[in-house]
Write a structure and sequence with these properties.
Layout lengths: L8 H10 L4 H19 L2 E4 L3 H13 L11 E5 L26 H8 L3 E6 L33 H8 L5 E6 L5 H7 L2 E4 L19 E6 L2 H11 L17 H10 L7 E5 L9 H16 L3 E5 L7 H16 L19 H12 L2 H14 L5 H24 L2 E5 L15 H6 L5 H6 L3 E8 L6 E7 L5 H19 L15
Parallel strand pairs: 2-3, 2-4, 7-8, 7-9
Antiparallel strand pairs: 1-3, 4-6, 5-6, 5-10, 9-11, 10-11
Helix pairs in contact: 2-3, 7-8, 7-16, 8-16, 10-12, 10-13
This protein binds glutamine (GLN).
The site of glutamine has 14 residues, from loops.
Length: 503
């Protein structure tokens, strides 16, 4: 019998709807896989104890002839930044250990309504601050390609779960790259939708003007299928767009079939210096571009002079918003409380925040409150907002000349656990190519581009499109994916080391 964990979500869904496989079987296969490999990978913070029951409910509805959505019965991993009523939601922080939410995030309730089966909650950097998942209060996740290496961050748990075949699909969040950079280092697909395209309601806020929830998968079509389920207007999110979105799964199917690369204008940013990039990353990126060119795409050099200030601006705007968003963890309303005998309420609050937050979170709260303080507001926060506008203008000018922009999804392949943990600046610089999209609100996708020659680890290529043009990314992403997978003779993940001996 086929190993059900090796199927794409689309293929698994086809088996489920034709009745050859039940959701209970599919869910059990993934739970078994989690039991076999997650001791090594540590993608999950919590595994659902009623996934099989949920799956059985879907199977019953299917036998009763209910109309079910395209992903009904397919298992799903959920990043722990998204609140759930039936499993704890910690956002990777000690301060929320064991926290049970009274409501589901909108994306979670939409996934449940579509019949997806939540498998569990995935590990992440505390409050989504980081690029390696090493800032999780519950210990790091390991990269299935090499367990000594980082899985990316902050959504390393979701990316590793999908790369290690523990789940066919996962939900992530991307504030500065936390879906796309983990996809890059694990050989998976990740999409950051247009800002406002997917509801943030119930996503524990990091930086509200940058946060976006999005899909994590092994194929572009699978990401599109999940995006179709979670996207669209939500009255509970004040920044949610009212747009009627096209089907992203259809866009992916069209891309895989059609000749969308012919005549496609692909912008490559002149100012992104090759020097900051690992040679094997640049080589894989250039090879992917050449493959696109061979199919009729036109590679156009564009200028985005302000991108280089993106990281600096982001590390003022993000901490400012985060310091304000995290003020609600005050020992009274949510989670942990450290008692201080005879102390004032401020003493309790301070002791709780001291014990409950990790170093990176404290660092950013201090940065953020400083940047927002009266005497410095114009110098720091105000200037950063101006840079943000300049980056938006760079994008607007670029998209007059090209249909998509392409970059490597990150400057290096997966680095070793421990390598950058004591050097926050090096960690921050990992997001140089992903951050501009969050600052401008435009959508981005990372798909596997190949393996770096020097270390054999995955490299991702990122495509960016104008706001609201997410469908274009699915068309182009699926087209490039099919060209590259053909040239490799099969998916990149087929070459990942076998974990747990089970696959
Ligand atoms: N690595 C970036 C950071 O540390 C991005 C995080 C994210 O997208 N949540 O802020």
């Amino acid at each position: 019998m086929t190993d059900l964990t090796r199927l794409s979500a689309a293929d698994l869904a086809a088996e489920l709807s034709s009745g050859t496989v039940s959701s209970v079987e599919a869910t059990r296969a993934h739970l078994d896989r989690i039991a076999a490999v997650d001791g090594d990978v540590h993608a999950f913070l919590h595994v659902s104890d009623h996934a099989l029951e949920v799956a059985a409910g879907i199977d019953r509805r299917r036998s009763a002839g209910d109309a079910l959505g395209p992903l009904a019965g397919v298992p799903l991993a959920i990043k722990d930044v998204l609140v759930t009523t039936d499993m704890p939601s910690t956002s990777g922080s000690r301060i929320l250990e064991g926290y049970m939410s009274p409501f589901d995030a909108t994306v979670v309730s939409r996934a449940r309504a579509a019949g997806l089966v939540p498998l569990g909650k995935t590990n992440m950097d505390e409050f989504a601050m980081g690029s390696s998942t090493e800032h999780s209060a519950y210990g790091p996740t390991h990269n299935p390609w090499d367990l000594e290496r980082i899985p990316g961050g902050s959504g390393g748990g979701s990316a590793s779960a999908v790369a290690a075949f523990e789940a066919p699909l996962a939900l992530g969040s991307d504030t500065g790259g936390s879906i796309r950079q983990p996809a890059h280092v694990t050989g998976t697909v990740g999409v950051k939708p247009t800002y406002g395209g997917v509801s943030r309601y119930g996503a524990i806020a990091l930086a509200s003007s940058l946060d976006q929830v999005g899909p994590v998968s092994r194929t572009v079509l699978d990401a599109g299928l999940l995006h179709d389920v979670i996207g669209g207007h939500d009255a509970n999110d004040s920044t949610s767009l009212a747009d009627a979105w096209p089907s992203f799964a259809d866009a992916a199917r069209e891309g895989a079939r059609g000749d969308v690369l012919r005549g496609l204008r692909v912008g490559v940013i002149r100012e992104l210096p090759d020097s900051g990039f690992q040679p094997g990353v640049s080589t894989a990126f250039r090879a992917a571009l050449a493959a696109m060119e061979a199919r009729g795409a036109e590679i156009v050099e564009i200028s985005a002079p302000h991108f280089e200030y993106g990281v600096a601006a982001y590390y003022l705007i993000l901490p400012a918003e985060a310091s304000s968003n995290l003020a609600k963890f005050d020992s009274v309303r949510f989670g942990m409380r450290v008692n201080v005998p005879g102390g004032t309420v401020e003493d309790v609050m301070a002791a709780t925040r001291d014990a409950g937050f990790g170093d990176e979170v404290k660092r950013r709260i201090i940065l953020g409150t400083y940047a927002l303080s009266a005497g410095y507001y114009d110098a720091y926060y105000g200037s950063a907002q101006k840079v943000r506008t300049l980056i938006q203008r760079d994008f607007a000018a670029a998209f007059e000349r090209v249909d998509v922009i392409a970059t490597p999804s990150a400057p290096t392949t997966a680095f070793k656990l421990g390598e950058k943990i004591d050097d926050p600046l090096q960690m921050y610089l990992n997001d140089v190519t992903t951050i501009p999209a969050n600052l401008a609100g435009v959508p981005g996708i990372s798909i596997p581009a190949g393996l770096a020659e020097e270390d054999g680890l995955p490299v991702g290529i990122q495509f960016l499109a104008p706001a609201r043009e997410d469908a274009r990314l699915y068309r182009v992403g699926a087209a490039v994916e099919s060209v590259l997978v053909d040239s490799w003779g099969g998916p990149l993940l087929d070459r990942a080391p076998v974990l747990g001996g089970a696959r």
